[in-house]
Amino acid sequence: MASQEIEALASALARLPGLGPRSARRAVLYLVKNREQALPALLDALGVVREKLLECDTCGNVDTRNPCGICADPRRDLKALCVVEDVADLWALDRSRLFSGRYHVLGGKLSALDGIGPEDLNIAGLLSRVEEGGVDEVVLAMNATLEGQTTAHYIAERLEAFPVRITALAHGLPVGGELDYLDEGTLAQALRARRPVD
After folding, report:
1. Which of 138, 139, 147 minimizes the C-alpha distance to 112?
2. pLDDT digits 0-9 by tens, 10-20
3. DSSP 90
4. Residue 105 host element (H or E)
5. Residue 133 and residue 93: Cα distance in Å, rounded?
6. Cα separation values, 21 from 4, 12, 31, 39, 42, Å
7. H or E segment and range at residue 191
8. What's the pLDDT score for residue 197?
9. pTM, whole model, 2 decimals?
């Protein structure tokens, strides 16, 4: 049996996404065995993040500066704006290095069951950014869920009043995917989005 303090640490780590009780215990054991090297570095990093973490006033990204590194980057395309549900989506898209524009984080998605309406999301901030001008294209990068697509549809309707091109991410067959392993929703989307063969 581990001490109450070690169990409390394992319990705290187990609440992190992607870590269950077993993985958390392994992480704690690693930290205990390597406490001279691993613990100070981890504590320093956590302390810095705790003190310096900010939410970008422009896009909603989290960073240690405001505006964030993406919004402050002069190499970014000011005419393209990608709308995402959450910061994790922003980081995933930006990690691909395929989108050179700027981002806007909504902070969630519309969900009647959870009581989340348009006023609970950063939609007003998005409309203000588009209204300021300079944006030619808004990419709606919502997740392929019912709530995500409902959110995208709502935003598209709100953006109709502005002279911007509204696009969405393509959905369908994953690269290397086999048809018999795909769910019906993915297959239906792939069939609806079919295109001519070149």
Report:
1. 147
2. 999 999 998 99
3. H
4. strand 102-105
5. 24
6. 15, 10, 15, 20, 20
7. helix 184-192
8. 67
9. 0.81
